[in-house]
Amino acid sequence: MSSSANEFVARVKRANPSLVAGAVKRRVQSGLARRGYLVSRIDDEGRKYFEVSHEGDVPLPAGAEEALRADNPRLAELVEQYNALTYPSAVPTQWNDSFLKKNLSLAWFRGDNAYVWQLRLFTGGAKTRNYLAMLDIESRDKLGLFKKLKEDGLFGAFTFTFGDRVVSRDLLDSINEINYLDSQIGLSDMAAPTVLDIGAGYGRLAWRMDEALPNLGAYDCTDGVPVSTFLCEYHLGFRKVSDSVRVVPLSEIDTLRDSYTVAVNVHSFSEQSHASIKWWLGEIAKRDIGWLLIVPNTYGELLSTEVGGTREDFMPSVLAAGYELADHRTVYQNDDMREMIGLHDEFFLFKKAD
């Protein structure tokens, strides 16, 4: 290009700054592409993979919007009770008011939020990845729970339909966890197995296990976060679970049973301080609890969340509470599928030492 032509182009760009911006954008995109990156503007659907959201296709049931409000008297009562406690478990390091404001919508508590990451977990290709997860879990579904448990998409859960089967992260995780516990402990063969769920959230696993195991003797849900206890009470009441399921507020921790078959903690200890975890382990140790299942947020390690975001290894604390590691494996068993699913969560199953 001649010097006069260059001067003409320069004048045009000065007259229209958008041309300059466009040229810079193309150069940046070209440079990133050579390094293996593609940059593009995400649409409304794509934003769901990066933001707290919920599926609104299934309307809220009657009365839900009125009950699931921040000014609900029962929620206020629980908050007051929890604030009066001096237990380390009542002092959140992650689940504080600021975190909840950003990561939870009360009425849509089964959406993609603080309790269950759904679309954000996969950052793209959620339907394909959930399909692969379904195939992996189905290969071990000896209890036939895919035929027994259903997903209705209520309260904002994102669902995926494969043939005549509707699934969600809630459903898939629950089927996987129940089958895993049954394969390791034999829950379905026991006369009346009992479960203590620490960090029960909105009662996901309690609801599913109550439907899955007709022989369930007792299932107690407890949580160190008052809004979780509030949602658990509401949700399990809405689901009309059996009398064997109970919600135990942290302020009533002394009403827990003296013994349980197993205590479960799914993605909860990882979001608490080490002091809180040791307090819970003390509550476990003082009771006759044969097994302890922990599903952490971190791969290969059991790490807490401290004030300021630092982490501490709490495996020694579990062992000091009188437990030994009995089984450790990834939640998805097929190596090839696990890589394509892109999720590497693990089961840590501990047995009470003799």
Automatic annotation (TrEMBL):
Q: What is this protein called?
A: Sugar O-methyltransferase
